[in-house]
Write a structure and sequence with these properties.
Blueprint lengths: L3 E4 L2 E4 L7 H6 L4 E4 L12 H10 L3 E4 L9 H13 L4 E4 L4 H10 L6 H9 L9 H13 L1
Helix pairs in contact: 3-4
Length: 145
Amino acid sequence: MIIRPLSESYAVSPQIAPEDLAAIRAAGYTTVIDNRPDAEIPGELQSAEMRSAAEALGLSFVANPVIGGALTMENVEAQAAAIAAAPGPVFAYCASGNRSSIVWALSQAGQMPAEEMISRAAEHGYQLAHLQPQIEALAAQKARG
């Protein structure tokens, strides 16, 4: 398992397994967000199994499946809500961590400059520069109320 922090309170990772959850908790994360649709993965890694294992360790678990190339505003809003409701740092995963990075940047638009979000993601190999106009538009929309 590879933990890639994008902020002090949010990290992403490629696909994890139930046995990784204890280390995630030990690293200080309180909420786990699964951004991978169940149709992409074997049964033992699907959200129901992961939820059961996470909750058994006292972690909050949120399933917010993001379909590659078909990200929706509902995904963005669900990610924002899960991050806002988390009692502590959030750990999100998908196949590579890319979708979890994208949905984070869009959901947190206006919380930090778009360039900083893009730079933090790039430090871990996630290329989000093409999203800068969308991040800035969402930030402006939030600022207008």
